[in-house]
Task: inverse folding
């Protein structure tokens, strides 16, 4: 089988697509969250540094004189206006001008602090904090300047602005309104983020590749029972339905295998019943045909008296009637199995059974039997008239066949929990407990010799069971040998038909 068309490939592909989307979102979330956290902490550090510098007195002059000790890479500048000109104070080792938007400095003069990022000529990023400055401590301890100290501070580039600050002449500026600018390089943050980015770019594809390999392995392992089921199913043929799928687990695939085993068992039973039915039907049809052939052959062997010919014709006629009955029963059984030619309608079952009993009572009288209609409730069912007539007629015919002379057949119809129960009781030969579960099988007869003489084919009760099943009901028997049998047919009850009332005009 082509791997691309397999469930394993599609399962793994969908799994990888979903996993890739989740990993990309996860990696982006980690990178963004860490970046925001680092820059937020960095800005908080600049803010604390500004608060620290506000505690120094005369810090502007100290910065301008070069005696202020900055932290590594830090640039500290002060801006203030003198004679409507923007002035800047910074360490002498720094160039005077910075590439800062003048609008941010003016906002700081207005009391609004802000952060921004600028880049030096060496493309070094600097994070800049611009805030109003107001010294609060008049006493300060200054650090002595270091001799020949190398300049680690970045060189800031000046943008062309008409209000660019002029070189500062150091004098009393501490008491004026000023703006403090603190700048620090963000190279450490950028380095950490670059490393994280490269790690994520390597980890995400590697994770997807490993997950893909693991997905293929797990999918093949999970779907291996399906392959075994397929191979077993290929070996099952119509002539050999004894094979079964090996059930090794209780998961979904295990339940699937168990269900398939049950289906195969049902098919095997169906084929067995079909073979038995074919064999039984052939036997039932062969017997009357053999009698007809024997009688006709015997009658034609030599001239005979009229009475002998008449006797042979009577035997042939009886066997022909028996053969016709079997064929009729087989046709009825075929119709029931196919579920065709059934026209369901609302039927008043009470009147239906009464009319049938009236017809059968004539036959009972000819056989010296008594048919009693004991109790009839008013009941309606949905059913096919022909099938229901066949159902009750077969049960009554069996009762007449196996009930001796002067016997009694009793018919009742009652409501029981929304169901209609029709009971047909006789005082016949009865059925043993071992045979009660077999009488509804096709071609099964309790007394084969007597049934043969009475014309039974062994199909009547089987047809009855099928008719009851088609109508959504059930049939059961209660019997004891030599004490009679009681057949109970249960059918779903429906609401009766209400006649329409005539409206007054």
Result:
């Amino acid at each position: 089988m082509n791997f691309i068309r397999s469930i394993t490939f599609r399962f793994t592909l969908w799994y990888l697509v979903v996993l890739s989307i989740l990993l990309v979102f996860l990696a982006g979330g980690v990178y963004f969250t860490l970046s925001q956290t680092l820059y937020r902490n960095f800005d908080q550090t600049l803010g604390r540094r500004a608060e620290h510098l506000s505690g120094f007195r005369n810090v502007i002059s100290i910065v301008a004189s070069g005696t202020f000790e900055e932290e590594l890479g830090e640039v500290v500048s002060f801006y203030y206006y003198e004679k409507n000109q923007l002035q800047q104070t910074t360490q002498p080792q720094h160039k005077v001008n910075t590439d800062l938007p003048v609008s941010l400095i003016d906002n700081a003069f207005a009391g609004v602090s802000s952060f921004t990022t600028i880049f030096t000529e060496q493309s070094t990023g600097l994070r800049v904090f611009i805030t109003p400055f107001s010294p609060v401590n008049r006493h300060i301890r200054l650090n002595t300047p270091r001799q020949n100290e190398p300049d680690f501070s970045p060189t800031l580039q000046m943008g062309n602005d008409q209000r660019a600050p002029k070189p500062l002449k150091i004098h009393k500026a501490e008491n004026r309104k000023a703006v403090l600018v603190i700048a620090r390089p963000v190279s450490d943050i950028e380095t950490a983020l670059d490393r994280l980015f490269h790690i994520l770019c390597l980890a995400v594809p590697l994770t997807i590749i490993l997950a893909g390999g693991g997905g293929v392995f797990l999918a093949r392992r999970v779907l291996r029972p399906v392959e075994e089921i397929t191979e077993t199913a290929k070996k099952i043929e119509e002539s050999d339905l004894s094979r079964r799928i090996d059930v090794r687990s209780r998961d979904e695939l295990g339940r699937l295998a168990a269900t398939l085993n049950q289906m195969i068992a049902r098919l095997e039973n169906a084929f067995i019943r079909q073979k038995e039915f074919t064999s039984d039907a052939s036997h039932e049809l062969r017997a009357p045909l053999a009698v007809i052939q024997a009688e006709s052959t015997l009658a034609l062997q030599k001239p005979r008296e009229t009475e002998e010919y008449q006797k042979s014709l009577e035997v042939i006629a009886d066997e022909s009637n028996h053969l016709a009955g079997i064929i009729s029963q087989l046709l009825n059984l075929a119709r029931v199995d196919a579920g065709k030619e059934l026209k369901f309608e609302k039927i008043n079952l009470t009147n239906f059974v009464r009319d049938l009993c009236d017809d059968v009572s004539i036959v009972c009288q000819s056989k010296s039997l008594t048919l009693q209609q004991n109790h009839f409730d008013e009941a309606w069912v949905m059913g096919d008239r022909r099938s229901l007539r066949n159902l009750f007629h077969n049960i009554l015919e069996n009762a007449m066949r196996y009930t001796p002379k002067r016997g009694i057949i009793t018919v009742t119809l009652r409501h029981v929990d929304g169901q209609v129960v029709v009971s047909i009781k006789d005082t016949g030969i009865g059925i043993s407990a071992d045979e009660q579960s077999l009488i509804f099988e096709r071609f099964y007869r309790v007394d084969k010799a007597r049934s043969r003489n009475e014309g039974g084919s062994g199909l009547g009760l089987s047809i009855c069971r099928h008719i009851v099943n088609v109508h959504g009901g059930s049939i059961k028997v209660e019997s004891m040998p030599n004490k009679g049998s009681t057949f109970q047919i249960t059918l779903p009850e429906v609401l009766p038909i209400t006649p329409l009332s005539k409206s007054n005009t």
Q: What stands out?
A: The chain has four domains: 3-43+192-222, 54-141+152-185, 232-338, 342-492. Residues 54-141+152-185 form one domain. The first strand starts at residue 75 and ends at 82. Residues 252-301 form the longest helix (50 residues).
